[in-house]
Design goal:
This protein is an alpha+beta fold. It is built from nine helices and seven strands, in the order H-H-H-H-E-E-E-E-E-H-H-H-E-E-H-H. The strands form two sheets. Strands 1, 2, 5, 6 and 7 form a five-stranded antiparallel beta sheet that branches. The protein has a two-stranded antiparallel ribbon with strand order 3-4.
């Protein structure tokens, strides 16, 4: 009896150790992926903007944004699916204790032998063990397939980080632009009110027709309408930033001053190999590998399976005898399983996976072209934005030179204060265009960063794509 107990204890230790080792192995392999994702923020890149407020907002989004948390939870769910798949490669142990009470109300005949009616208890305490011998590596391939799914979820998470931080930065600089445009628009309104007052005096003095006065009144209304539109956009952008930062109100949204913005240098050309850094590209590649593994699994479904099973425990009719030598029971065996006919289900599944593999291949090729297109489009947009900003800056400089001439004409009496005010409005509107072009340069740099898969643009070696 002691030998039996020792054998039973050894078997329990072996199986529990195997399971514990497997759990520990999976945990150690993936625990780094669940700890810290701050590297996905790519703070080295955002620090190039030399904007502490923007960097602080990035960290707040990392800590509180709901989309980032959802993406992280999906990765953690994928890790648990990998553990579930790995468990299919390991033996399983179940304990299914049973107590039964039999009541016989009539005699039972076995030939000439008669067993009268009786009552009887039955106590069963077995440990049942099952293990599918993975001769063809099918279960291991399924685990590899789930690991590829996990890698795809990680790329989805990385894409969420890149997309969200890019959107946050774009909205942030749009807010900087709107704040400055509103400031200038208010100057325009104040200037136009002065122009209107002076025009009213001219009209009352008979120096201008009523139509000129009406035109100045209409111009003031246009400026006020533009101000209303700018303030509406300002509120919308603030609300969007509040969502990114996971805060309930937008009252404390701040930005850097427009004058302190540092322009970001963008490369003129980019290597074509850089598309391999994009999350969608890596995900498509991993999906291609996953479906290829699934095709192998589908092929091995046609092969027989070998199940090793065993049972060890105690069975007695009285509780006091449950751990006695006569109550000990054990059995073991090997069960080959092979489907002779499955109605074409396995063949249909194999064909389905082959079609899925072809679809994944086509999607991979499509993403290559789409990625190159998005990078090229972003490069063109960045170049155009930089050229427009240079042109508008030169145009603003020329307008200021003309304004200096206007001051000289005013000093010698060749121009009026009203003329000077109207030309000052032209400079303010030109300055608004220059502000928009400068912010467009920032937005195009952010879009290019997103197109290259969240890579620091200052680390890119220029080359024709």
């Amino acid at each position: 009896m002691k030998k039996v107990k020792i054998i039973l204890l050894c078997m329990l230790l072996i199986f529990s150790t195997t399971t514990a080792f497997a759990k520990s192995k999976v945990k150690n392999k993936h625990e780094k992926n669940t700890d810290n994702k701050i590297e996905y923020l790519n703070l080295n890149w955002w620090n190039k903007f030399e904007d502490p407020i923007l960097t602080d907002y990035m960290l707040k989004a990392y800590q509180h944004n709901h989309d980032l948390k959802i993406a992280s939870l999906k990765v953690q769910q994928g890790q648990q699916i990998v553990k579930q798949s790995l468990s299919q490669e390991l033996p399983s142990i179940q304990f299914s204790g049973n107590f039964a009470r039999t009541f016989r109300s009539s005699d039972t005949y076995f030939g000439d032998m008669v067993i009268p009616n009786y009552n009887q208890s039955n106590f069963l305490l077995p440990l049942t063990m099952n293990y599918e011998l993975d001769l063809w590596g099918q279960n291991h391939l399924q685990t590899k397939s789930t690991k590829q799914r996990l890698e795809m979820l990680k790329q989805d998470e990385r894409a969420t980080y890149i997309g969200l931080t890019s959107a946050l930065a774009a909205n942030y600089y749009n807010l900087v632009k709107l704040n400055k445009l509103i400031e200038i628009q208010k100057e325009l309104i104040d200037s136009q009110k002065t122009v209107l007052t002076m025009t009213e005096k001219k009209y009352k003095s008979g120096l201008c027709p009523i139509t000129e006065l009406i035109d100045e009144q209409k111009r003031l209304k246009y400026f006020e309408e533009d101000l209303n539109s700018l303030e509406e956009k300002q509120d919308v952008v603030k609300n969007q930033l509040s969502v990114y930062l996971a805060q309930k109100n937008s009252d404390n949204i701040q930005t850097i001053a427009y004058e302190d913005i540092k322009l970001i240098d963008t490369p003129a050309n980019i290597k074509s190999e850089l598309i391999q850094n994009r999350p969608d590209m890596l995900k498509a590649e991993q999906n291609l590998k996953r479906v290829g593994i699934d095709v192998k699994v589908a092929r091995r479904n046609f092969l027989p399976k070998i199940i090793i099973f065993g049972q060890i425990g105690f069975n007695a009719y009285q509780w006091k005898n449950i751990f006695s030598n006569p109550a000990f029971l054990s059995n073991a065996g090997v069960a080959p399983v092979f489907d002779l006919f499955s109605g074409g289900r396995k063949l249909a599944y194999l064909k389905f996976k082959k079609y899925e593999l072809e679809e994944a291949s086509q999607n991979y090729e499509k993403i290559i072209l789409t990625s190159m297109q998005e990078i090229n489009d972003s490069l063109v947009s960045a170049k155009t934005a930089n050229k427009n900003y240079q042109n508008s800056t030169e145009r603003l400089k020329l307008e200021n030179e003309k304004f200096d001439l206007m001051d000289k004409k005013l000093n010698i009496g060749a121009a009026s204060k009203l003329d000077r005010l109207k030309y000052q409005q032209i400079i303010l509107m030109t300055e608004q265009e220059d502000i928009s072009n400068k912010i467009n340069c920032m937005l195009s740099a952010i879009e290019l960063y997103k197109a290259v898969g969240g890579k620091n643009l200052y680390d890119i070696e220029p080359e024709y794509i």
